[in-house]
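Example record

One chain of 169 residues, shown exactly as stored in the release files.
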Amino acid sequence: MAKEEIFPLVDETGNIIGQATRKECHGGSLLLHPVVHLHIFNSKGDLFLQKRSLSKDIQPGKWDTAVGGHIDLGEEVETALRREAREELGVVDFKPEFNYSYVWESLVERELVYSYRTVYEGEFKIDPVELDEGRFWSFDEIEKALSEDVFTPNFKKEFEMLKKVKQGK
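Predicted structure tokens for this chain:
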């Protein structure tokens, strides 16, 4: 039997205040737990998105941030970011730049998101357990598809923040 994942519980500034299982964190408890997001751009400014696996417990089959994952109990933020990039896309050689952090809340979970970006032109080795596919999207393509039900709600919110970062605001 697989070992139950244990996540740290944090306050809104990232201080660890406890711990809980993945099931507890995703079961509607709204226990705040930390996650990492990595937005991968190419040199043209297009944004790589992943299509979440249909087997995911949250937002299956939706397009989402290139890399996203939970920070394990006792793990540093950047260590988690690099682990998730390697596991999901096979990306190991990149320089992350911090964007911002914010609290994301849905009906089933509450996360403290640490958002990063990088420019990457290398190969991707997509893990079929984690995601179904991935590709670069132009900002115009994303804008045109926002009214369709193809993106995770979390990505839609973060896309609005990314546009401000891109514009230097």
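Notes: The longest strand covers residues 32-41.
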